[in-house]
Amino acid sequence: MIVAVAGGKGGVGKSTVAYNLGASLDAAVVDADLAMADLPAGRGPDLHDVLAGRAEAREAIRGGPVRLLPCGRSLAGARAAEVSRLGDALDGVAAECGDVVVDCPSGLRADAGAPLAVADAALVVTSPRRFALADAVRTRELARELGTGLGGVVLNRIVDDAPVGAVERALGAPAVVVPADPRLGRSVRENEPVVAAAPDSDPAAAIDAVAERVRRCR
Amino acid sequence: MLDAEWNLTEVAEVALVEVSVHNPTAVDRRVRVENRLDGPTLPPRRGGVPERGWDADGYAGVVPAGGTMRLGFASPAPPAEPPVAVEDGGRAENDTAGDGAEDREGNGNGDPGSHGDGAAPDRAASAAAAVRLLDDAAPPADALPVPDADADADAEGEATAAATTADGARRARAGGPSATDADVAASVGSVGTTNGSATAEGAGREGPGGTDGGTAPDGATRAGDGGDSGGGGDDAGAPGPAAGSTGDGGDAPGPAADVEVPPPVAAWLAGVERRIDHGERLTDASVVEAAAVLDERGGVDAVADLPDRLAADEAALRALAERAAALAERAGGTDVPLAALRRLA
To answer: ipTM score here?
Structure first.
């Protein structure tokens, strides 16, 4: 099963949610943000290489606390990457790892649309930041236009009362509230998912709830 | 039931076919347009992906009731008439089937929505559909670099740039990158000056050259080699555009000082000058000097072709000098009577 984590706007926490969700689902996480990758990388072939035909998808998967297929960081790599190959690339990852969580780029262009179109379900991440909900609605519309259903909504980085009702009505799907938490904030940077680092914490419980929502989409 | 018209033009041995299909009936009708030319079908594409409805043999789609559909494709084939066969596929069901894609085997043009209905998802088709629908997201291209006439500029440029940054003293002696255009212009003017100026700076660098006493642009000429803008090893052959300004390295000689040479020419001359510089330094070189040059060029193999290239450079420069001098004469001899022409116009 392939889940695309999207959110329209930069800064809502898509990558953090995707990474931690991957840990909870024991899925492989693919960083599909071709121009501004931010999941942990290292040496070896990456998604730029896969989308340019230089490597097979399974060769680019890294082990670790979360299985990752990172993306390159160069502009040249982003230019050479053919977004239309993403379908085959994600098929390759799914064949190798089972479930796949795709961290999508922000925006509404082909680089965001391709993973949304390919996925079996979309997870839209939004936050209480201004205009984040409007962008989430646009992303949800894009997913609909591309034929991908909305598997769930994540209302992320919540500090005080969360406007859950309004978000659920706007997006037409149940929302899971994920609290703002420093352990989540540093999980990607330190390559340490919160479900492993603090399994009994509120953020871990919230991530597990998101995972449960995704499992129901099978 | 469908009225079809076609138009065939040929451009540079490629046939361009335009087809117009009109549906006068009251219901939507499917249409199949097949390429009858003896060559492959080249459909319109977006982002490299053929537009929806096209396959290797032609197009399948739906013409709305009372409407007209226009489409076109190319084929590198000899023109033939008729270039297409238009088939009426009967009444179209409503709702999704907007392109009749399910009539054909999966070919990347399927409706992406179809993968939600339990059939094995065609992910490649979905990705292609997204690319077709949405704007391209690739980062913009690099600014175009000035073409580098020196084929080994990359290796040489990197070595030179690296050598330059490591050798601060040489940079200081070079006096900055800016005078290159002036020197290049000076070099072009007459063959005689070139030898003198290039050799003189050998003396300034404690090298073996320096046979002709100093002529003015020696320090500045050095800049054409290593001192040019540190940006980009592969740009080492093009100090011209980076410099832009002229003659402010100080010692550039007389009348050519204010002339700006076109960047491609400046780039070529810079490459030539670099080779000449290496050649001179290797002529009667001390061990230290020779080692330095070999290091800059990247080994003795990189130097192996230097004598031949220098011979070619000399011939080219002499020919260029003759031609440039002749053209300068002719340019100087013209006298365009602007005032009179304005009265004519």
So the answer is: 0.83
